[in-house]
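Continuing the batch. This is chain 6 of the set; chains 1 through 5 are on the previous pages. Same settings as before, nothing changed between runs. Recording input and output for traceability.
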Amino acid sequence: MQVGLLSTYRNPVQNRAAMAWLWALLLMAFYIDLYFFDHLDVAARLVHLPSKWTLYGLLYSVAMCVGGYFMLRKHGSSRYHQVRTAVLVAVQCTLGFLLPLALDFMGRPAYYFSYFFPLKYDILFPGTLKDMPVAVAIWFIAGSFVGVPLLVFYKGKRAYCSWICGCGGLAETFGDPWRHLSDKSDRAWRVEQISIYMVLALVFVMFGLVIGDAYAADGSAVRAVAQHTRSFYSFAIGSVFSGVLGTGLYPLMGTRVWCRFGCPMAAVLGLIQKFGRFRVTVKKDMCIACGNCSTYCEMGIDVRAYAMANQDFKRASCVGCGMCAHVCPRGVLRLETRDDAGPHEAIGTWTLDL
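Output for chain 6:
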């Protein structure tokens, strides 16, 4: 039994008690102020930072560093989590904060090199690409359509969602105390399947409209629709869903609300994972139905049901965080990458120190 599991639901911040609601309100208030007001711009100037977004990047990085420290105090017996957490924090601090800060101080556009299309939905818009240095444009195009998809096909969705992405990074570090609150019901799964692909469809509709707008005459209907669609997406999805609710609901609904129900990148990578080599494998007839794996799955997957059925599984939503294998007292679960070629297939295992 891993440290901290028995006391999880006794902590009022972790069991939806009044303190958890207070945390949620504070987080939502912070994001509302960030997206819709200018108070943080004043705070940024006081500490000599260029803008509120730079200050936000600093606070985000600090939250991940502190959260990662406490996460490893609880789960640091696993080599997998040690390395994964170190990589997540390093990517955020360098690609998500220091490099954009350096570019900003040099008077150049601040690019976030760890975010790709369709998560960074506007990075491949014609107007955006036109203003980029060629090398930067190649990075985002190649990463969006070649690099990340190939990485996910061979190593699983975890390679991006649990090792690189800043949204996942905050969930895995700062959000770790609330990972057990994700809804594991079939109803939640059905809502997830509908909502995440609706957001993905909206991204592609918007992308098509913007492409059409690039070649449309001034004042055309396409231009007007494209502008309204971008405004709606920026407000409803980019601000409210991913920020205010996606992070604000950590203490009430778990840490992957945005990743599970809304992220268009997660939707695309999940489809690739279904055809790829990654899966969670189960040691046959070893599960004792303790339920730790399902409880601590932040993506709401009922892992215990698969383990009791002796069934290896691939789920589009699985981000390969490895927590199900880590908290299993009998080592029933493993994260593996294997070719579906036949009985003599080569298997690459990312083992977990239990």
